[in-house]
Amino acid sequence: MSDIADRSLAFEGVKRIEWADRSMPVLRQIRERFAAERPLDGLRVAACMHITTETAGLIRTLQAGGASVALAASNPLSTQDDTAAALVEEYGAEVFARAGTDREGYYAHIHQALETEPDFVLDDGCDLVNTLHTDRTDLLGTVKAGCEQTTTGVIRLHQMAREGALKFPVVAVNDTDTKHMFDNRYGTGQSTLDGIVRATNTLLAGKTVVVAGFGYCGRGLAERARGLGARVVVTEIDPVKALDATMQGFAVQPMARAAVEGDVFITVTGNRDVVNADHLAVMKDGAILANSGHFDVEIDVRALSDMAVEVHHGIRPQTDEYVLADGRRLVLLAEGRLVNLAAAEGHPAAVMDMSFADQALTCAWLATSHASLSPAVHDVPKEIDTEVARLKLASMSVSIDLLTPDQEDYLHSWRIGS
């Protein structure tokens, strides 16, 4: 039995799901193919993902392939209650998610999704896989394989694999080019700034925006903030990424120095305490703090709370103001959680079209290939990534060249000299 906030919201949810579907032509094509071929017939899937209109497109595609799906939220602030209602009432999925639920409710929903005894699991941050390996080890024997679609989750999975703790194969969907190159860079880049602007109505032009982390997410953020007229400072721990940022014309500084200069701080590292008490102590009055990494640990919110003499909650939607003893005000967005999903609507559907196409095709591949995979972290087959890119280009009416037979021979021969 599903646990959602309000089933009467289903009609509104369907309208928004159908709107998103218009911008997801690749997933639509895969859904049609799945409906004809039924590659997931009889399989049970448990997913821990953001409950958004775009995710609904993936769930419908898995169902078209023959799977039954139980869905829990991967972040309580990103749950769209109307989408949850539509998935239950109109599309026949089991959903365990309510917007704004507390930590206890969040994990209760994950446990409810796992009660379906899934064959496959789809994760967004590794909380579902972690729960399986800690609290629900009794279900490990039924799980054949899984997918993970976040950088943070993949990091955790690799650590589990190194320690010999991972008990079934998991495919790092996050690491496909059509996912991280587009979802992380273009999706996170746009949606994070969208969330900050919606929450604060601040003008980014002329501001100093500090981007912590220069992976694909950080690159997208830095590019778009610069495009809006901001001076962008990048903080990094990786010399290669720091060099990349420098060569692209961004200022690169340690956070201790950037903390003094920044007007807006955005963390996208996948690590904890990236903005800590020492940094908070030197920030400007009115500095804005936002996180777009998966978990709410990148900004030390506990330290911020301890330093504050007053907290003004909800001065704008998803905007809390912390007043420090010296009168400075620091503005925290979305409680330090994912600002692009809590204060905005997450990635545009056109971007998630590729990410969820990767997920759907990987699930179909796992249905026939899981038995040959070891309990480790695996890459998505290259042909799936290529197929998604090909379908996306076709949907955009973009044509590319094809190799001639002579070119194919040349590329595959070592006997031809200069």
From TrEMBL:
Recorded catalytic activity of this chain's protein: S-adenosyl-L-homocysteine + H2O = L-homocysteine + adenosine
Residues annotated as binding substrate: 52, 124, 179, 183
Enzyme class, UniProt record, top EC level: hydrolase
BP-aspect Gene Ontology terms: L-homocysteine biosynthetic process; one-carbon metabolic process; S-adenosylmethionine cycle
Residue span(s) of domain S-adenosyl-L-homocysteine hydrolase NAD binding: 184-346
Ranges annotated as spanning the membrane: none
Superkingdom: Bacteria
Functional pathway: Amino-acid biosynthesis; L-homocysteine biosynthesis; L-homocysteine from S-adenosyl-L-homocysteine: step 1/1
Annotated keywords: Cytoplasm, Hydrolase, NAD, One-carbon metabolism
Binding sites annotated in the UniProt record for NAD(+): 150-152, 184, 213-220, 236, 271, 292-294, 340, 347
Cofactor binding summary note: Binds 1 NAD(+) per subunit.
EC number of this enzyme: 3.13.2.1
SMART domains linked to this entry: AdoHcyase (SM00996), AdoHcyase_NAD (SM00997)
Family of the protein in this entry: Belongs to the adenosylhomocysteinase family.
The protein's name: Adenosylhomocysteinase
